[in-house]
Design brief:
Layout (H helix, E strand, L loop, with lengths): L17 H28 L4 H10 L17 H14 L1 H20 L2 H7 L1 H5 L3 E5 L15 E5 L2 E12 L4 E9 L9 E7 L5 E6 L10 E12 L3 E2 L5 H37 L1 E2 L2 E2 L4 H29 L5 H26 L10 H9 L8 H13 L4
Parallel strand pairs: 1-4
Antiparallel strand pairs: 2-3, 3-7, 4-5, 5-8, 6-7, 9-10
The chain binds acetoacetyl-coenzyme A.
Length: 392
């Protein structure tokens, strides 16, 4: 297992470069000034934050990993993770909407040819258009290999049929990487990946899903009915799709885990402030051990989660396969944000349960981190496989 003591240079360093500090500052300012003021209204309405996305695009907080050769910033997993924490500190509904192009474009960046990258990535830089990651299906979420969507070769084209659901930003995406079976008898080895323009005939957005939390991120279901795409839209070879999806998730899980840390940090800050102000039995509740121990645990868990996130992103940037560390980070950060936000509601007492106070939203938002990009149970499964059936 690769460990932190393999740090570049003379030893372990937690220091950010000046560029990274500036990037984090930019994201924090954006979260404070552009995201937070609109978070409650978008949450209430469950509508897509078009204006905030446009501004995030304008200031350079989207599409961070598009290579420099294509005009992008070519930022590292670590840089993306720094932005992920801050924008989700602002609001994880809006934050996820902003960051999800990383997941959508991930397969093209990881597995696309130069020509495919030049076709699909530069338009993301030119205007605030969205892309999405079409993996999950009504009967195949955690168990990816059970997917039923098919892609049948017909000369220089493929014809796709099937349904996808729980797809972030799909209702507003210009294109989606759709995973489909090209050889239904071959299990995970029969899955291939295709870039599908969402305005192609036969693509139908079926519904916007009305979620408990992260309500300002669009999550949609869509159907593919005899959708024709050129064979040149296939990423990798036939049968590569499963591994392309897994490698993409290895890359994006640290960023998602960072988002969980951002939400936990927001809840912790609110709980600390409230504990200093709220008086019971003649003292601020922060003076009661029942409260300050909860807050001490929050701070400890957030710090531990952040370190796991930093480690997993750092390993990616060293070019190492970080499947295990990505799942450590995603699992721990997701479970941490659920615990921290639940305890923040507890610190606020009855007020915490009321929509007028911000921690109620944070607790609803937190739950999704234990579900999307692989449930907490799937992260444990990945970790157990890495321990008992290690791959090179
Ligand atoms: N990198 C490269 N290869 C990998 C890999 C990885 N991280 N993980 C597995 N593989 C390879 C294995 O080595 C194996 O290769 P061979 O064919 O050469 O033997 C092959 O892939 C199959 O691996 P497994 O036997 O481990 O596969 P499995 O069927 O048991 O499933 C799983 C593994 C981890 C459970 C996987 O199905 C999984 O990750 N499920 C969760 C999916 C998920 O996260 N979905 C969320 C979608 S994104 C989202 O949330 C939507 C959104 O828009 C927010």
């Amino acid at each position: 297992m690769a460990t932190m003591d393999q740090a570049v240079g003379t030893g372990v360093s937690f220091a950010l470069t000046d560029e990274q500090k500036a990037l984090r500052e930019l994201a924090r300012e954006f979260a404070l000034n552009e995201i937070r003021p609109k978070a409650a209204a978008y949450d209430e309405a469950s509508t897509h934050p078009v204006d905030v996305i446009a501004k995030a695009h304008e200031v350079g907080l989207m599409n961070l990993h598009v290579p420099e050769e294509l005009g992008g910033l070519g930022l590292s997993a670590f840089d993306g993770m720094l932005v992920g924490e801050e924008v989700n500190w602002g609001c994880s509904g809006i934050g996820t909407a902003i960051c999800a192009n990383g997941l959508g474009a991930g397969p093209v960046i990881l597995a696309g040819t130069e020509e495919q990258q030049a076709t699909w990535l530069p338009p993301l830089l030119e205007e605030p258009i969205l892309c999405s990651f079409g993996l999950s299906e009504p009967d195949a979420g955690s168990d990816v290999a059970r997917m039923k969507t098919t892609a049948v070769r017909r000369g220089d084209e493929y014809v796709l049929n099937g349904s996808k659901t729980f797809i972030t930003n799909a209702g507003y995406a210009s294109w989606t990487v759709v995973f489909a079976k090209t050889d239904p008898a071959a299990g995970h080895r029969g899955i291939s990946a295709f870039v599908v323009p969402m305005d192609a005939p036969g693509v139908t957005i079926e519904k916007h899903l009305d979620k408990m939390g992260q309500r300002s991120t669009d999550t949609s279901a869509f159907a593919l009915t005899d959708v024709v795409v050129p064979a040149s839209n296939r990423l990798g070879d036939e049968g590569d799709g499963f591994k392309i999806a897994m490698r993409t998730l290895d890359f994006t899980r640290p960023g998602t885990a960072a988002g969980a840390v951002g939400v936990a940090q927001a809840a912790y800050e609110l709980a600390v402030e409230y504990a200093k102000e709220r008086v019971t039995f003649d003292v601020p509740i922060a003076m009661h051990q029942g409260v300050n121990f909860m807050i001490a645990d929050m701070a400890t868990q957030i710090e531990a989660a952040r370190l796991l996130v930093w480690q997993s992103a750092w390993l990616h940037d060293l070019g190492k396969r970080a499947t295990l560390q990505s799942s450590f980070a995603k699992l721990f950060a997701a479970d941490t944000v659920m615990k921290v936000t639940t305890d923040a509601v507890q610190v606020f007492g009855g007020y915490g349960y009321i929509k007028e106070y911000p921690v109620e939203k944070l607790m609803r938002d937190a739950k999704l981190f234990q579900i999307y990009e692989g449930t907490s149970q799937i992260q444990r499964l990945v970790i157990a496989k890495e321990i008992f059936l290690p791959r090179d």
